[in-house]
Design brief:
The protein is built from 15 helices and 15 strands. It has helices at about 15-25, 30-45, 90-95, 110, 115-120, 155-195, 230-235, 240-255, 270-275, 280-285, 305-315, 330-340, 350, 360-375, 385-395, and strands spanning about 50-60, 60-70, 80-85, 100, 125-130, 135-145, 195-205, 210-220, 265-270, 290-295, 320-325, 345, 375-380, 400, 410.
Length: about 425
């Protein structure tokens, strides 16, 4: 059986209804409030009604969550409501009133409600918003101040379709909130217990065969095991990204006295965290002239000028800036152009297989030439084969890191020299 077809057509792609459906079906394509507002506005306009709203049943009350009234003044507002038993909504859900009413003034059961005459209510359509477990969230309703005998079952069918979409989106949002709360509790527990460790991977000056720096990498202990990128992504979802990044940076810097005096420490940090207060105080424990901050390809920067201003005092005191994952995507190229980094780190997707793939080699050559002309240094990441290292040598890449050259290790087993 096909879905009901609305009796009034809407231009596809140009209406609030289209945006609403995209928002309801998409993964946060439109903010929840805007998506639901589009639903009520579109149904009101499409059916030629005066008022449309979404209500929630909670604590024995009917609460208006989303309202669209056009130019009509009505005595309802978002967040307001009243006793559920005194509403059309409850009586329609339990069958005492029909879902489609052409003229409430002619219906004795509707006239039992004071609002029918007070508003007044003419035509009225209402359908329940039901979750997948059968529970009723509330209703999707619309009404006019006058009768409308042109409304039919197809119009009611459209209401039901939109009510189902609304229920789906609300349920998604509730599930997301539940998941986010669980994530937040997990991140807060890790922050409280410091249930993570820092390992340090050596960065090698290949021609001189010596260690020049260490990249600090986080390893999380709680089970089930999650890779570090998952932990930091979840922290961002829970609004705790800066707190977690600052905590692991502070932990990483505790090992600075163990590093050879002629080496530096490289730290991964998101642009959002660098814009937060408190990060500068932590970094100044460095000292700054022995620290490199790596900005990853996976993090976007909305305002490059503001970001550069925030970094300027730190860079003036010796802090170096690196763009990580260069060659992995468009964002890294934009970071390089806008931030003028001291170091460009060739992504593992370029270095692994560079001895076999002319395309990887060509892109690496372009980045190496760019660095040479702009005064940046190149560090190749993920070097695991001698043949890859040999190609990098031929390309005049002098600095590299990877399992071939040195594995990450805790500060207690820090590699301080090469064999």
């Amino acid at each position: 059986m096909s879905d009901p077809v609305p009796s009034k057509t809407l231009p596809v792609g140009k209406t609030a209804l289209t945006r609403a459906l995209l928002g309801l079906e998409g993964e946060s394509a439109i903010a929840l409030g805007q998506a639901l507002q589009d639903v009520v506005r579109s149904i009101r306009v499409h059916l030629g009604m005066d008022v449309a709203f979404i209500s929630e049943f909670t604590g024995g009350r009917r609460v208006f969550r989303q309202i669209d009234a056009g130019l009509v003044a009505v005595p309802i507002e978002a967040g307001g409501g009243g006793p559920l038993e005194e509403s059309y909504c409850q009586r329609i859900v339990d069958g005492r009133l029909p879902q489609l009413i052409h003229n409430a003034q002619e219906l004795p059961a509707a006239l039992e409600l004071a609002a029918t005459r007070a508003v007044p209510v003419g035509a009225h359509l209402s359908v329940p918003i039901c979750f997948s477990d059968g529970s009723v969230y509330g209703t999707l309703c619309c009404f006019s101040l006058t009768a409308n005998y042109s409304l039919n079952e197809r119009d009611l069918g459209m209401m039901k379709v939109l009510a189902d979409f609304t229920a789906h989106r609300l349920e998604q949002d509730a599930s997301r909130q539940h998941d986010t709360e669980a994530i937040r509790e997990r991140i807060e527990r890790v922050l409280e217990t410091r249930d993570y460790n820092i390992v340090y991977q050596p960065i090698i000056h290949v021609p001189e065969h010596r260690i020049i720096g260490y990249e600090a990498l986080t390893r999380f202990s709680p089970e089930p095991y999650r890779t570090p990128d998952v932990w930091f992504h979840e922290a961002a979802l829970a609004g705790l990204q800066a707190e977690l990044e600052i905590a692991v940076i502070a932990r990483a810097l505790e090992a600075m006295p163990l590093l050879p005096g002629n080496t530096y420490m490289s730290l991964n940090v998101s642009p959002a965290t660098l814009m937060r207060s408190g990060i500068a105080e932590v970094l100044e424990r460095g000292p700054l002239n022995r620290l490199v901050l790596e900005i990853t390809e996976h993090e976007s920067i909305i305002d490059y000028e503001a970001f550069a201003r925030a970094l300027t005092p730190l860079r003036q005191h010796g802090l170096a800036l690196a763009v990580d994952d260069a060659g992995a995507g468009y964002a890294s190229f934009r970071h390089i152009l806008r931030l003028k980094p001291d170091i460009i780190k060739l992504d593992i997707s370029l270095t692994q297989g560079i001895d076999q793939d002319p395309a990887r080699r060509a892109l690496a050559v372009a980045l190496i030439q760019f660095a040479a002309e702009t005064g940046s240094k190149i560090v190749a990441e993920g070097v695991e084969k001698l043949s890859e290292l040999e190609v990098l040598r031929q390309l005049k890449v002098n600095k590299a890191q990877g399992y071939l050259l040195g594995r990450p290790a805790p500060a207690s087993r820090l590699q301080t020299s090469l064999q």
